[in-house]
Amino acid sequence: MSRILTVSSRLMAVAVCASVLAACAGAKIEAPEVNPTDMPEGPGLFSGESGNILEGFKRDKNNPETGGNIGVNIYLWRAALESVAFMPITQADSNGGVITTDWYSNPAQPDERVRANVLILGKTLRADALKVSLFKQLRTGGVWADAPVAAATVTALEDTILTKARAIKVQSRAK
C-alpha cells in the first residue's frame, strides 16, 4: 500500500511541475537591453575607488616618488629590474616589491650559477628600503652544491640599484 502512495505522490508532483511549466510558457520575460560597451560604475578589483583601471598607474601629484599605486618606490623598482635584467626573472610583483630571478650561469663560468631576490620595502628612495639576497651554487661532479656569497657582492648589487635609482630620478625630473 505504501508503495502505491509513493508512486501516486510522484505522479502528482510531476503533474504539478508540468502545469507550472505550461503556465510559464506563455509568459514573455523581457530582459533589459545590454550594450557591450557599457562599463559598470564604482570600484573594482583592479580599478580602485574610481572604477577606472588606468587610475592605478597615475602618479600621486603630492608624492611623485611613489609611482602611482604600484606600492613601492618607482625609481628603486625600475633600477632593480634593470640591474637584474640579464638574469631570467621568475617573479616581479610591483605591489609587494618582490623581484625573484631564476638561476643564471655566466657562459665564461659554466660550473657556477647565481640567483637573486630583491625586496623593495618602502615608497621612499632610501638605502634601507632595499634588501638584496644572492644565492650561489657550484657544480662539482655534475651535482650543484650551495656556496657562500661574499657580502661585498651583495653590497655591490645594492649600490648599483641605488645609483641607478638616483640617476632615473634625476632624469625624470629633468624632463
Structure write-up:
By secondary structure, this protein is of the alpha+beta class. The chain has a domain at 70-174: 2-Layer Sandwich (Alpha-D-Glucose-1,6-Bisphosphate, Chain A, domain 4), CATH 3.30.530. The chain has helices at residues 2-25, 74-83, 151-174; strands spanning 89-93, 98-101, 104-105, 112-120, 130-140, 143-147. The N and C termini lie far apart (93 Å). The mean pLDDT is 78.
Descriptive terms for the model:
3 helices, 175 residues, 21% strand, six-stranded antiparallel β-sheet, alpha+beta, Alpha-D-Glucose-1,6-Bisphosphate, Chain A, domain 4
Quick rundown:
The protein is an alpha+beta fold and about 180 residues long. The protein is built from 3 helices and 6 strands. Strands 1, 2, 3, 4, 5 and 6 form a 6-stranded antiparallel beta sheet that branches.
Rg from Cα = 31 Å
Instruction: Characterize the biggest β-sheet.
Output: 6 strands, antiparallel
| The CATH C-level class name of the domain at 70-174 | Alpha Beta
Assign a percent range to the helix content: 25-40%
Spatial shape: elongated
Low-confidence stretches: none
* Termini separation: 93 Å
What percent strand? 15-25%
The number of E-state strands comes to 6
CATH architecture annotation of the domain at 70-174: 2-Layer Sandwich
Mean pLDDT: 78
